[in-house]
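Sequence only, no structure available. Ideas?
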Amino acid sequence: VKVFPEKVILFCEVAPPHGGETPFIPSFRVTERMLEEFPEFVEELDNKGLKYTFKVLGKKDSSSTKGRGWENAFGTSDKAEAEKKANALGFGVEWLPEGGVKTILGPLSLTRVFEERKGRRMWFNTMVGMHRKEVSNVTMADGTEIPEEIVKRCSEILEEESIQFKWEKGDVLFLDNYALLHGRRPSLPPRKVLAALCK
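Reply:
I predicted one. Tokens follow.
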């Protein structure tokens, strides 16, 4: 992946009755704190890079937490065309026996320094969000597993540094994707927050 969205724009069409906040976190603070606690690990992982894998179903299954199938994800039912689209985005693909696909991305660095961000080293990864989940995983680029205690501590740091944005109908939130991490808290329905990504 060579180009990442620089801005994320969120719009609240339906505010949740409870929960559903959008936490955002200054990326450089996460890097600073991880370097304080795990300097050798951060440098090793930045040098080796991360490898992300994500499994996508063969068909859409709305009853599954795994979500939409690869035909929906790639907008085609032709495997060769799906591979072409995945490759154009920087993903490798591995077709699975049950009809699904595993996408592979990497190596990608753990941190990045972007122009006009005061030379700060940003925590620019989804290690915590994808590590050892039902349909995804992240490892070192050579396949070495990332220690669970490091992922757990990073998750705690993200929580400690997060700022919670509580939605009201009509709110618009502009985020600098190169400087901020963001997420979503669980909520009671209904909740409808629309997103747009900009280069």
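The two ends are 13 Å apart (CA to CA).
Hope that gets you unstuck.
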